[in-house]
Amino acid sequence: MTVVTATVPSSGCRRRGAAASASAAVMAAVGGGVAPAVERHGDVLNTHLDLWGWEVAAYLFLGGLAAGLLIVASWAVLAGRRREYLPAVRVATLLVPPLIGAGLVLLWLDLGSKLTPFWLYVTLRPTSPMSWGAWILLAVLLTSSLAAIPALLAMRARASVPCRLPRLHRVLEHVGRWAARHGRWLAWINLWLGVGLGLYTGILLGTMVARPAWNSPMLGPLFLASGLSGAVALLLLLRPRGPWAPVFVRAEVGLHATKLALLGLYLTGLATSGAAPQAAAAALVRGVWAPAFWTLVVGAGMAVPLAVGLREVTVHRCPRRLAVASCTLALAGGLALRVVLVYAGQHGL
Closest Cα partner for 103 from 210, 197, 5, 242? Predict the structure, then answer.
């Protein structure tokens, strides 16, 4: 996965030359395989690239969701509420490995060279967020799978599923006993890995200095909060009743309010910076991306779930259909946030 872009503030007679230099730099970086376009946004000339498709946006969403589930399950263990929240914790623990696996498959499908991921594991580059992300994903896949084995064995035993691979079952039982004995240590590791994974999905975009819509320190915390709220919404959909439900609803209210605040800081940062970030903010709030941004990201993904959550917290009753719609909108809004930012960043913003 290679993305190289350039944003060129235009000024006087240097506009054409600067834009040509930017385009040439991008062409050289991508090996001439992709032709970037140069267009004007007000006083800013930007290059357009279409290197990342929907697979990357979906991968960022699934990665954030897995990070949120990992954090919630680890928090329940460390807070001594594992037994009390056991149904929700089991669901969260069992979902993380397949979500990470699905995200890695999507990322692999988006790559031009299918062998590129293996080179990332040959070395560790401390200054490369992509290198850190590759190792974090591998570590999360390993530790979340270890944490999921006891839950998987318990589910199989409760369902009385016949064992057709006795040797594999004995190995899983041995690993499961080890994971259960070291559950607290594993929860600490998974908690920090979950935070790192949630932040990484936003930091990966934030390091692209040539893309004003991505080059913001707010994207890491925003994606982390979005992943957490998506995880809570998913658990409320799958396990709506239990002692965890009121806690999760209050957490969801706080997370939606946090997302709105971080999104406001993100837009404020763009609007108070140079010409290129200001053009990116304008395109998001009143330009071509405004309908999707306000309707799907802000309205459906944050404002409506926040209003429903506040009603549930204050009135202590919420129709099941309304709660389901709110959680579904929160998940759809999390996906829309990644889709809008991934495409807006590539299209010259």
Answer: 197
What SS3 class is residue 348? Answer: coil
**Is 122 buried (19+), middle (13-18) or exposed (0-12) by CB count in 10 A?**
exposed
CA 246 vs CA 92, 146, 218, 302, 324: distances in Å: 17, 29, 29, 19, 15
Query: Would you say 112 and 264 are in contact if contact means Cβ atoms under 8 Å apart?
Result: no
Contact in structure between 190 and 143 (CB atoms under 8 Å): yes
Q: Could you tell me the two tokens for 207? A: 């390091």
- Model confidence at 313, pLDDT cuts 50, 70, 90, reads confident
Highest mean pLDDT among 38-42, 51-55, 126-130: 51-55
Three-state secondary structure call for residue 123: coil
pTM: 0.81
Cα separation, 74 vs 273, in Å, equals 39
Beta strands in the chain (DSSP E): 7-9, 37-41, 44-48
Strand partners, 44: 9, 41
